[in-house]
Predict the structure.
Amino acid sequence: MRSRILFVSGHPDDARRLSRMLHSLAITVDHVETLHQAYAKLQQDDYGVILTEASLPDGKWPDALHLGRQFQQELEVIVTDPHADARMWAEALNLGAYDLLAQPFYEPEVRRIMYNACSRAGSRAMAASAGSC
């Protein structure tokens, strides 16, 4: 079964690059450009992970974190930014993000982080469904 991530970014080229990087891991990347579009997509489809740029046309990454918490399943949120540093990484983790990815994307790092986040999200979903029986 393929995992699905929602990539919130104003850069469609990055979405295509991520799709190629993650295809062999059975991870599908759906792309939207704004938080408003992300909200609509999250209402339609199930995702385990949101990958969001730090700055978006209609908000910032903490807004994506809040958006992810609005849905029944707890989504893993990963932040990406070309200016990612240790301070931003610590802030993201302290506020509840799963991780931070620096740009430009380094394929081995992207594959490792996304695989682990999808695995964690899948484990949570399985535990939640087992608890409801």
